[in-house]
Design a protein that fits this description.
The structure holds two protein chains of two kinds. Chain A is built from no helices and eleven strands. Chain A is 0% helix and 49% strand. By secondary structure, chain A is mainly beta. In chain A, the strands form two sheets. In chain A, strands 2, 4, 5, 6, 9, 10 and 11 form a seven-stranded mixed β-sheet that branches. Chain A has a four-stranded antiparallel β-sheet with strand order 1-3-8-7, with no helix packed on it. The radius of gyration of chain A is 13 Å and the shape is globular. Chain B has no helices and ten strands. The mean pLDDT of chain B is 96. By secondary structure, chain B is mainly beta. In chain B, the strands form two sheets. In chain B, strands 2-10-9-4-5-6 form a six-stranded mixed β-sheet, with no helix packed on it. Chains A and B meet through strand 5 and strand 10 of A and strand 4, strand 5 and strand 9 of B.
Chain lengths: 122, 108
């Protein structure tokens, strides 16, 4: 059974930084792309970033490009999201999500974690 | 970027009703479309992948169809436990992987 467990959320001031983690189990982590998807309070889902299984390919939404960095440690089955220069509009629940193994399936999110809340105070 | 237009934004239906949600892509996405269910306070759950394939373990009352730019999600006979918000999402060749605005389904 696939399990994804996010951690690292919390309250941070505008302009601050936070690092999210997602511990994965139940599948061969290094074979699968992984994404971060966020959801602002009362709003819809917004894809944030994706990283390929090897870690060699990354993509970002324009809204976070240059401020957020996705990475992974395949030896520890863990996904990360380093968030810098945080803004009030980054306040959201952040989910990690399992993607596919091939490039055209990177964004197909088969399994999701329970989410971690990031609150940015202005 | 590809835009996804999902409708309606909300709907109310009775147990046993047939429910249909549509999603339109701003350009051809082949069949690279998923449907997710998000119950209140929970993470999204994949129901339909590649536009029309039922995820294992998902009840057969859920179905999807379409290709290219126009897609449909159907619940053949609504159950009380289907109370949720439903999202379409395209995952074409290149990011960003955009979601529809969501459809909040209420039970009468």
């Amino acid at each position: 059974e696939v399990q994804l467990l996010e951690s690292g959320g919390g309250l941070v001031q505008s302009g601050g930084s936070l690092r999210l983690s997602c511990a994965a189990s139940g599948f061969t982590f290094s074979n699968y792309a992984m994404s971060w998807v966020r959801q602002a309070p009362g709003k819809g889902l917004e894809w944030v970033s994706v990283i390929s299984g090897s870690g060699g390919t990354t993509y970002y939404a324009d809204s976070v490009k240059g401020r957020f960095t996705i990475s992974r440690d395949n030896s520890k089955n863990t996904l990360f999201l380093q968030m810098n220069s945080l803004r009030a509009e980054d306040t959201a629940v952040f989910y990690c999500a399992q993607g596919g193994t091939r490039a055209h399936t990177y964004g197909s999110h088969d399994s999701w974690g329970q989410g971690t809340l990031v609150t940015v105070s202005s | 970027d590809i835009q996804m237009t999902q409708s309606p934004s909300s709907l109310s239906a009775s147990v046993g009703d047939r429910v249909t949600i549509t999603c339109q892509a701003s350009q051809d996405i082949n069949n690279y479309l998923n449907w997710y269910q998000q119950k209140p306070g929970k993470a999204p759950k994949l129901l339909i992948y590649d536009a029309s394939n039922l995820e294992p373990g998902v009840p057969s009352r859920f179905s999807g169809s379409g290709s290219g730019t126009d897609f449909t999600f159907t619940i053949s006979s609504l159950q009380a436990e289907d109370l949720a918000t439903y999202y379409c999402q395209q995952y074409g060749d290149h990011p960003p992987y955009t979601f529809g605005q969501g459809t909040k389904l209420e039970i009468k």
